[in-house]
């Protein structure tokens, strides 16, 4: 009975990922796309957890943690891109025209 429940959960989570992929591709705004990508990350963590339960192993727990960290970093990078227009700022762009002894 547990295996059947886990299989149904796996199918439903896979459908949720496909629905989020549609929102990523056709989303009306950048915020919708970012939210969908974050939701895909959460669904992937749940899929890995269900697979770990189905296979009766703890080997995938580190993978779940890694996917969670990568999803968080992706969300932070997108938020920074929306706020400033760039993800990685270079030092040359941040400098002021102040009197700096290094420039002399």
UniProtKB/TrEMBL annotation:
Q: Which domain of life is it from?
A: Bacteria
Gene Ontology cellular component annotations, sorted alphabetically: plasma membrane
The protein's location, in the record's own words, is:
Cell membrane
The way this protein sits in the membrane is described as: Multi-pass membrane protein
Recite the UniProt keywords alphabetically.
Antiport, Cell membrane, Ion transport, Membrane, Transmembrane, Transmembrane helix, Transport
Keyword Cell membrane assigned:
yes
Family assignment from sequence similarity:
Belongs to the CPA3 antiporters (TC 2.A.63) subunit F family.
Q: What protein does this entry describe?
A: Na(+)/H(+) antiporter subunit F1
